[in-house]
Amino acid sequence: MTMTPKQDTMAARQDTGQGTAKQGTARQQETTIRIPGLINDLTLMHVTDCHLTECDERETAAIREAARNRAKVFADQLDGGDTTLGIFQRFIDDSNEQQVDFTVFTGDIIDFPSQANLETIRAAYDRLNSPFLYTLGNHDWYFDGRFTDEVRAEAYPQFRDWISTTPGCDVRTVGGVKLIALDNSNYQVTREQFETIREAAALDEPYLLFMHIPMYLSGLVKDVVDKWKAPILMGASGWDPEVREAWQVRHQDESTGEFCRWLASPDSGNIRGIFCGHVHLNHTDAFREGRYQYVTASGYTSTSRLIRLIAD
Length: 312
Hints:
Blueprint: E1 27-35, E2 42-47, H1 61-78, H2 84-98, E3 102-106, H3 115-127, E4 132-135, H4 138-141, H5 149-155, E5 169-174, E6 177-182, H6 191-202, E7 207-211, H7 218-228, H8 241-247, H9 254-263, E8 271-276, E9 283-288, E10 291-295, E11 303-311
Parallel strand pairs: 1-11, 2-3, 3-4, 6-7, 7-8, 8-10
Antiparallel strand pairs: 2-11, 5-6, 9-10
């Protein structure tokens, strides 16, 4: 899905309306979530959409040329002041320096699955002091051509050290809170992924859901369409047929629709938040009463999110 990213808009109001963006070498959004019964406070770091463009002679000439064009897209936006790689490496440093309890990467960390990109993230993840989860975005596995489930499945072996299933749905527990990383990078959720999450939710333990593509919310879609000229959200309706074809987004699977409705209902249990990226803007909105979806702007603009979980 090789679309040209546009300059992101920074939003200052986060969480239930009180977050702020820190200025300096990085813009770190801060979100605080109160969880009844939490024994110890926890700090997580959310990173998304860094779009690394590392590429070398091991790739074909056509891929190297396309990679140079993509690198220029981001260099033009950064106005020569930084690189996507330099920003990404600072996120690793920030995670270590802030001594977070967990770090989650929600896709498009790399702009295409070149060998150099994969080696770069491997070395960076090896530097992390915290445990981490990594779920894929569309760019991690796709680089021009066909945007299909088959292409994604073919790419998955390159990510096997970080993702246990195809498509991914990994669950970790830290301090009594479940962290679920869901691969919805094709805008869909399979029946198997849904069942994994529903089983985790049935235990009534608090959990956070991390995924690349945000769920459709009426308060989010206008900003997304204004930016991308398409409703590039999971569960979105109202696609223009020609635009849908250009983005290669198929019609919603039955399991995806059921999953979206379940998330928006009390049946989704003790979910404490959804965290995602993809649309390159900051946005917070309720997906059910008292529960919020937090969209984090693109990492290549030096934006990340610090998530504080505190006892209520």
